[in-house]
Amino acid sequence: MTDLVTFGETMLRLTPPAGDRLETTDTYDVQPGGAESNVACGASLLGVDSVWLSKLPKSPLGQRVVRELRGHGVRTGVAWADPDDHRLGTYYLEHGGTPRGTNVIYDRADSAVTTVTPDELPVAAIKGAERFYTSGITPALSPTTLATTRTLLEAAREADTRTAFDLNYRSKLWDPDTAAETYRDLFPLIDTLVAPVRDARNVLDREGTPIEIAHSLATDHGFDTVVLTRGDSGATALHADEIYEQPAFETETFDAIGTGDAFVAGFLARRIRGDDVDTALEYAAAAASLKRTVGGDVAVIRPEEVEAVVAESGDEISR
Amino acid sequence: MTDLVTFGETMLRLTPPAGDRLETTDTYDVQPGGAESNVACGASLLGVDSVWLSKLPKSPLGQRVVRELRGHGVRTGVAWADPDDHRLGTYYLEHGGTPRGTNVIYDRADSAVTTVTPDELPVAAIKGAERFYTSGITPALSPTTLATTRTLLEAAREADTRTAFDLNYRSKLWDPDTAAETYRDLFPLIDTLVAPVRDARNVLDREGTPIEIAHSLATDHGFDTVVLTRGDSGATALHADEIYEQPAFETETFDAIGTGDAFVAGFLARRIRGDDVDTALEYAAAAASLKRTVGGDVAVIRPEEVEAVVAESGDEISR
Amino acid sequence: MTDLVTFGETMLRLTPPAGDRLETTDTYDVQPGGAESNVACGASLLGVDSVWLSKLPKSPLGQRVVRELRGHGVRTGVAWADPDDHRLGTYYLEHGGTPRGTNVIYDRADSAVTTVTPDELPVAAIKGAERFYTSGITPALSPTTLATTRTLLEAAREADTRTAFDLNYRSKLWDPDTAAETYRDLFPLIDTLVAPVRDARNVLDREGTPIEIAHSLATDHGFDTVVLTRGDSGATALHADEIYEQPAFETETFDAIGTGDAFVAGFLARRIRGDDVDTALEYAAAAASLKRTVGGDVAVIRPEEVEAVVAESGDEISR
Amino acid sequence: MTDLVTFGETMLRLTPPAGDRLETTDTYDVQPGGAESNVACGASLLGVDSVWLSKLPKSPLGQRVVRELRGHGVRTGVAWADPDDHRLGTYYLEHGGTPRGTNVIYDRADSAVTTVTPDELPVAAIKGAERFYTSGITPALSPTTLATTRTLLEAAREADTRTAFDLNYRSKLWDPDTAAETYRDLFPLIDTLVAPVRDARNVLDREGTPIEIAHSLATDHGFDTVVLTRGDSGATALHADEIYEQPAFETETFDAIGTGDAFVAGFLARRIRGDDVDTALEYAAAAASLKRTVGGDVAVIRPEEVEAVVAESGDEISR
Amino acid sequence: MTDLVTFGETMLRLTPPAGDRLETTDTYDVQPGGAESNVACGASLLGVDSVWLSKLPKSPLGQRVVRELRGHGVRTGVAWADPDDHRLGTYYLEHGGTPRGTNVIYDRADSAVTTVTPDELPVAAIKGAERFYTSGITPALSPTTLATTRTLLEAAREADTRTAFDLNYRSKLWDPDTAAETYRDLFPLIDTLVAPVRDARNVLDREGTPIEIAHSLATDHGFDTVVLTRGDSGATALHADEIYEQPAFETETFDAIGTGDAFVAGFLARRIRGDDVDTALEYAAAAASLKRTVGGDVAVIRPEEVEAVVAESGDEISR
Amino acid sequence: MTDLVTFGETMLRLTPPAGDRLETTDTYDVQPGGAESNVACGASLLGVDSVWLSKLPKSPLGQRVVRELRGHGVRTGVAWADPDDHRLGTYYLEHGGTPRGTNVIYDRADSAVTTVTPDELPVAAIKGAERFYTSGITPALSPTTLATTRTLLEAAREADTRTAFDLNYRSKLWDPDTAAETYRDLFPLIDTLVAPVRDARNVLDREGTPIEIAHSLATDHGFDTVVLTRGDSGATALHADEIYEQPAFETETFDAIGTGDAFVAGFLARRIRGDDVDTALEYAAAAASLKRTVGGDVAVIRPEEVEAVVAESGDEISR
Ligand SMILES: [Ca+2]
Ligand SMILES: [Ca+2]
Ligand SMILES: [Ca+2]
Ligand SMILES: [Ca+2]
Ligand SMILES: [Ca+2]
Ligand SMILES: [Ca+2]
Ligand SMILES: [Ca+2]
Ligand SMILES: [Ca+2]
Ligand SMILES: [Ca+2]
Ligand SMILES: [Ca+2]
Ligand SMILES: [Ca+2]
Ligand SMILES: [Ca+2]
Ligand code: NI
Ligand code: NI
Ligand code: NI
Ligand code: NI
Ligand code: NI
Ligand code: NI
Ligand code: NI
Ligand code: NI
Ligand code: NI
Ligand code: NI
Ligand code: NI
Ligand code: NI
Ligand code: NI
Ligand code: NI
Ligand code: NI
Ligand code: NI
Ligand code: NI
Ligand code: NI
C-alpha cells in the first residue's frame, strides 16, 4: 500500500571533487537528483512506502536514475521515452567554501519529462495514496508539465489524497511574476504549503514576520498547513490556527544540496504516520541537519538516526 | 603564422571507469572531445600552428573546453554565447571489450554551436592559413552550421587555403541520403577528402575495391586527394593519379575513440610541412596506432614518437 | 507476477584495484555477490520478474546488499537478523593475469544466512513462480540451510514450480564425498541440473564424454534437463533425449567472476519465456561472454545486447 | 633491545570515503587497526623499540596486518593460524559530522586471536622489555584471551617489566558488570592504569571528581600511576601521591579514531625514556591532538612534531 | 598586447590526499606551482594578458608545466633545456590541520631555471608590457638567476614598464642577511614592493607598526608603492604618501598555498586596469580569500567572483 | 641470521594512471623502486632473510622508502643524510601499450646515495651473510658509489660471502665503453654474473650464441656462474661447465618494470637454499613471469605461487 506519491524531474548531478572547479576538473561524481525524487527517497528511507512518477529516456542514463531510486526503496512509475528524441537533464554542482559558495549550472532544457502527459503515467497510484507531493519546479519546466501537474493534483483532490507542495522557486527557470501567477492557480489544490520565507517575500510578495506571512498565506489560499523555512534560523508552521516554531539543529555541512527536500521528507514521514505538526516539524529539522552530513542530493538517513538527534544524543562514537 | 584552421563542435565527453557501465557508474572521467578540435590538438602536438573555430556557452563548461585545447597548444577563436540560452553538448562513452563493444550516447541537440554564424567567428584566420579542415559532422548539426560550413569553405577557396574534409558520417545525426546530398553540395569546395571505405559504400553508394572507389570519387568530384581508411586493414590514397597503400601498424588499444582524427592530424601535419602523400600516409597510420594507446579523444603524441613507430623501434623501455 | 525465485547467500565482495595484491592494497571495491542473487539480478536485467530469498543482519551492511539487488530490479524477501549476533559474510577477490590467476578468500562462516529457516521467509513467493533456483553452495553452508533448501525445493515441487540447481561445488566448504551425498539426496527434487563437467567428473564420479555424462546423470536422477558447462569450450545440454552443443563466444575478460551465474541467468530467462533449450543455450553462452567484459559479480547486461551477440554484430562503435 | 611489548587484536578497518555511508558506498579504504598495535606503532614512530604479540590467519590478510605494522617499525611476534579455520576480524567505520557522529560495526567474532595461548607466542620478549601494555578489549574477546592476558601480565610482573593497561571498555563486547569483575581480577597485575573518566564512572562505579576517582582507584588497587582522560577536557594523572592536570591541545579533527591510543603511545614513550609523569602527560596530550589530523587508526607522528606542539609553534607553513 | 610579464621558477607540486602523510602515501596529486607563474595565471584569469618567462627541460615534465599555464590563458616564453642535464624542480606539499600545519619539502636544487640567461629569453616581451613582476625567490636560486633578474628589471626600467616585486623570503634558500643584501641591491629597480610584515621585520630589520614600516621602506628605497600583508589581519598600503588599510575577508580554507600570489594577482590586475590603490587592495584581499577555497597553487577565480565578494554577496547557492 | 645483503639506490617511482601521459596527468601512483631493493624485497617475500644497505635523506621521503622495504620484510641499514643538502632520487614511469612502449625519466642526479661511504654503512652485515648482491647501476652513480661498491665486494670476498652482480646497463647513466671498463675492474670480485644477452653484446662486446657468450665470459673473468637473460626467449646459464636452458613462462603483463629483479630474487632465493642452478633457473623464470602481473617495481609474490607456476597449475580460480 502506497503512502506517498511524488511527481517531478530527476536529473544527473555532476560534481567535481572537493577543491576542484568546474572549469578545471577531469572527474565528476555522478548521482541522480531532483526535488521530488529526493523527497520520495528520503521518505522511503524513513519508512514511507513511496512511488515516484516521471518520464525518462529509455537508455542507460534513464536506467541509472531508476536504479538509484529503487536502491533507496522507491517504486518508480516511469513513462519511457525514445532516447533518440528525448534527453535526460543534467546539472553541474560545484561546492565551495565561504566566500565562494556553491555554484549550480542547469542543463535541463528539453528533457524527456517536459513532454510528460497524465495518460503516460500510472495516475491510479495517487488514488490509493495517503499523500501526493510535487514542487514549484515541475510546473516551471514546460506548459505540458504544468498541465500534468494540475491534472495530478486534481486527481489527488478527487481521491482524498492530501497534497503537499514546496514552492522551490528557481530564478533560472522563470521570473517571479510568472511563477507567482502559476502558484496562485495551483494553490486551491494544495493542502500543505512548504516555502522558504525568502521566496514567500520575493515571489509571493508577502511582508512581515514569518508568523504574519504564514497567517496571510493560509487566509488567502485556504491551506490546511503552512511551513515556512528559514535556513539556519529554523522553521515556522501554522496549522489549525496554531503556530509552531522549530529551531535548526547544529550541523557540520558536507553537502548542503537537498536539505530542504530532507526537511519535507521528514515532515511528511511523520504526518503520514499520524503525528502532530509539532512532532513532524522537529523530526523534519533533525532530518535536514543529518542530511547535510551526507554527500549527494538524497538524505540517506534512517529513522533511528533522526530519533537520536531529536533525543540530542547523536554525536558520540558507538562501539 | 597559422598552419591549420579547423571548425566544428566540441562536447564534454563523460566516461565511466573501465569495467563499469553507464547504468551503474558513480563517476565519470570528463574531457572535451570533437572531431575538429581533436584534429587541431593532434596536429598542434605534432608541430602545426593550429586554430580552432567554434561557439561555446560563456560558462565554466565552455571555459573547460578552451582550457583543454589551449593546453594542447591550440589557439581558439570562440564565439561566446549567453549560457542561459545556449548549452554545451555532451557525450557519454562506455568502453567495452569484445563482444560488448563501445557505446556512445550523444546529448548534443541545441548546443551553442548549432547557432554559429560566420560573422561571430574570426574568419580572417582562414585567410592566412595553409589548410582548413572540417568534417561531415558539422553540417549535420543544424541548417545554420551547414550554411556556416559552406561560407568558411568558400572563404578558404578564395584565400587559396587548401581544404580537407573527413566524411565522418554519423547515423544518429541524419540518414544516408540527406547526408549524401549535403556532402555532394560541399564536395566542389574540398581539396582533400578523407573517408572510411564503409561510408563511401553505404552513404556515397560507391562500389568496388578501395582503389576503384578512390578513382570514382576523384573523377566525380575533382578532389586533389582522396584517402580511404579501412580500420585495421590500413588506408588507400589517390593523388595525382597515383595510388598509395598503407597498412595499419600493430597496436594495443586503450581507447579507440579519436583514431580517425589522429590519422587526419598526422596526415595534415606532414602535408603542411610539404611532404608527399606516401610519407604523410605512413605518418598518419603511425599517429593513429599511437593514439589508441592513450586515453581520451586527443592524440597526445609527439613527432619523435611517430617517427619512432615509422622507424619500427617504438616498443622498448628506454632507460 | 513472479517469474523466478532464488534462494542463497549473498556476501560483500572486497576487491583490490587491478595490479594490487590483497597483502598490499589500501582500497577495496565493494559490491554484493552470491550465486543465487547473481542469477536473480542477471535474469531481472534480462526481463525476468525475480525474487531473492535470504537472511541478512539488520544493519547498514545488510541494507547495502538489499540496495544493490533492488537496483538491479530484484524484489527481496529478507529475514532480518539481529546484527549483534549475526554477521554478513564477506569474500576477498584478487584478480590476476596468467600465470597468477584469481584468488578468493572466503570469510563466510556463521553468517546470518546459516540460521535461516523456512518460516522466516516468504515461501509463498515460490508458489506463484515459474521457476525456483538455488545452487550447491546453499546446502553446504550449514545443516539449517540444507534443511531449508530441501523444504523450499519441496514447496516448489508441490506448487508445480520448476526447479533448477547449479552444482557449484566449492572445495573450501566441503569435501567431494559429503557434497555428492547431499546432491544425490536433493536431485529427486530438481528438474534442471547445471554443472561444470569438471565437477560432474570429480564430485559426482562420472566418466566419459560430456554427452555420456549428461545421459548418465539424466538416467540416474531423472532430470528433465542437464546442462554441462566446459568453460572456453562451451556447453552441452540434454533435454527430451536430444543433445545440444553450444560453443563459447569469444570474449575479452575484465572480470571472470559470475560467468557461470550469467550463463544460468540467460538460460533461465529464455526458458521462462518459453523458448527451446537450443535457443536458451545460445542466449546463455552470449550472456556469459558479455558478463566477462563487466566488473563485478552481476551480469549488468540488457536483452538487446545479448541478442546482438547472438546475431554476431556486437563489436562495433555505435554512433 | 625491546622497550615496549603490546598484546592484542588487530582487525582490518574498512572505511567509506568522506560523505559516503556504509549502506551506499562502493569503496573502502582499508587499513589495520587495533588498540594494542596502535599503541605499538605510535610508540615506535616516537622512537620506542616496540614488539606486538598476537595471532593471525596465515593468509594475505594476515600478511596485510604484519606489513603495516612493520612499516611503522614494529617487530611482530605472530602466532600464525590455519586460514581455513581462523579468520581475521574486521571493523567498518563510518565517519560523520555533527549530529551524525561516527558509526562502528565490528565483525570480530571468532577471529584467530580468540584462540591464542601463551605457548604460541614469543613470551620471552616481555622478559627483556621495559614495559608491557594491553587493554581491556583483549580479555573481553574470549576466555582464552583472558587467560593469556593474565599469563602475560604475570610474566611481566615476574620479569620486573612494568605493566600498563587501558580500560577501553567496549559495550558491544560485554556488559559493565562482567567487565568490572574481570578488570578487578587483573588490576593487581597492573602498574599504570589509563581510563576514560566516563568508564571509571559507568563501569568501575566510581563517583566524584576526576581527582577523587584517581585517588580511590589507586587506593583500592595499588596502581603506581592512574591516568584519567576526559576527551576535549584533557587528562588528570595521579602518581606518587601527586596530581597532574593536563588540558587538551586545540585540534582540527580529520579522524578521531585512535586518539586514546596516541595518548597512551605518547605517555609511554616518555615514561620509557625516563621522563616524569607531568612531562609524559603533556607529550601524550600533544600526540593525541596531532593524531586527530591524520587518517587511520595509527598516530603517524614524529617526535619533533610532538615537541613543536608542546612548544606551541606547530601551525605555520615551514618553507 | 601584453599587460604583464613575470619571470621565475615553476616546479611540480606533489601533494598526498587529505589526511595522508608524505611518509605513508601511495598517491600524489600533481600540479605545477611557482610564485611568478601563480601570479601570471591568477592575473590572466582575472582578465590580464600575461606572459611568463622561464627555463624548462624539454621533456614531458617541462611540457606538463607549459600545458597548465596555457590552460590558464598565459603565454609562455620558455628557454628549453636539454633534459639529460637539466631537471625540473619539484616540491612535496603535505596539508595538515591545526596543530600539525602544512609541511613543504623542496627538491629544487639544480633545476633548469638556475641556468637561465637573458639571451635565452624573449626579453622583448617586457618592452611592450604594462608591468613586470618577479619575486625574492628568483634571485635566491643561483648567481645566474640573480644576474638575469637584475637584467630583466633593468630592461623593464628602460622600457618604462613598471616593476613589482614580492619579497617572498624563503629560509630554506638563503639566510636573512644574504637575502637582505640582495634585496637592497635590487630595490632601486622596483616600483611596487609587496612584503609580509613579518619578513620586513625579520629580514629587512624594520621595526614599528606596519604604517611606520611602510613609510620607512618607501623613504629608504624610493618605492612608488609599498604593500605589507599581515595574513588574517589584512594588508596595509602606502602610495603617494597616503596609507590604505584593508582587512582580510572571511574564508574557509581548502588550500592555503598561493594565497599571497592570488593577492598580488588581484592587486596588479586592478592597477593594470588603471584603478586606484584602495580599489586594488580590496580586490586583492577578495581574490586571496577566494583562492583559499580552491585546491592547488593557482587562484582559479574569475572577475565576477571577486566582485561578488567585494559586494559581500558571494556565499549563496545560485540556482 | 642474514641470508642476503644488497646495496644500491632506491628512488621514488612516480607513475600516471593507465592511459594517461606524463605531460597531461594530474596524479601519480608513488612507490619506492630500485634494482637492489627490488631484489632484497623479492627475495624476502620468497623466504630469504634480507638486508638492504643505502643512504637516504632523513625526511618523510626517506622514511617512505624505509617503510615500504620493511613492509616487504627487509631490514634496512641506512646512512641517514641531512635532508637540507641531500635529496631523494625520483623516476617518472609512463606505461604504454605497443607501439608506444614504456617511457622512463630519471631524476636521480645528486641523490643522497651518491655520497655514501663504507664507514657510514653497517658493513658487518655482509660478513655473516650467504650472498651479497649489487648491480651495474650502483657504480655508475658517482665515483664515491663506485669506490664503495668495490669496498663492499671486497668485504664480501674476504668474508666468504658469495657475490652476485646484475649488469643492468643504463645508457642514461654512462656510455658503453666507460661502463665496460668499470665492469671489468669489478668482475674479479664477482661469483655470479647476471646479464641481458643484449648488454653482453653491446656493452661487453661479446659475439655468438648465448651459450658461446656465457662460455667466453666465464673463461675471461672466472665467474662461478653466468646467467644470460633473453626476455621472452628465456635464459641461459653456465655453471660448473654445464649449460642450462630455461624458456620464459607465459604471462599477461600488467607492469613489466622489475621483471629482471624478480628473476634475480628467485634465482638467489633458491641458490641460497642450496638448490642447483637448474632448479634455481626455473624458479627464477617463474618468479619473473608472476612479477609481470603485479603493479610496482617489487615482485610481491609468495613461494607457493612460484611453485604453482613451476608445477603448471597456477591459472585456476581457487574457491
Ligand atoms: Ca586526469
Ligand atoms: Ca548534494
Ligand atoms: Ca560512490
Ligand atoms: Ca577517447
Ligand atoms: Ca592509502
Ligand atoms: Ca559484483
Ligand atoms: Ca563503483
Ligand atoms: Ca584508523
Ligand atoms: Ca596503493
Ligand atoms: Ca597548486
Ligand atoms: Ca585533477
Ligand atoms: Ca612497477
Ligand atoms: Ni586533464
Ligand atoms: Ni549514490
Ligand atoms: Ni558534495
Ligand atoms: Ni553511488
Ligand atoms: Ni552505487
Ligand atoms: Ni577510455
Ligand atoms: Ni580521459
Ligand atoms: Ni599503503
Ligand atoms: Ni596505508
Ligand atoms: Ni572482479
Ligand atoms: Ni574486477
Ligand atoms: Ni555502485
Ligand atoms: Ni577517516
Ligand atoms: Ni602502498
Ligand atoms: Ni590542497
Ligand atoms: Ni587535469
Ligand atoms: Ni589539472
Ligand atoms: Ni604500472
UniProtKB/TrEMBL annotation, chains A, B, C, D, E, F:
Keyword field contains Kinase: yes
Coiled-coil residues: none
Pfam family of the protein (one): PfkB
InterPro entries: Carb_kinase_PfkB-like (IPR052700), KDG_KDGal_kin_Halo (IPR054871), PfkB_dom (IPR011611), Ribokinase-like (IPR029056)
Domain Carbohydrate kinase PfkB: 1-297
Gene3D superfamilies hit by this protein: 3.40.1190.20
Keywords: Kinase, Transferase
PANTHER family: 2-DEHYDRO-3-DEOXYGLUCONOKINASE_2-DEHYDRO-3-DEOXYGALACTONOKINASE, SUGAR KINASE
Name this polypeptide is given: Bifunctional 2-dehydro-3-deoxygluconokinase/2-dehydro-3-deoxygalactonokinase
Organism for this UniProt entry: Salinirubrum litoreum
Gene of this entry: kdgK1
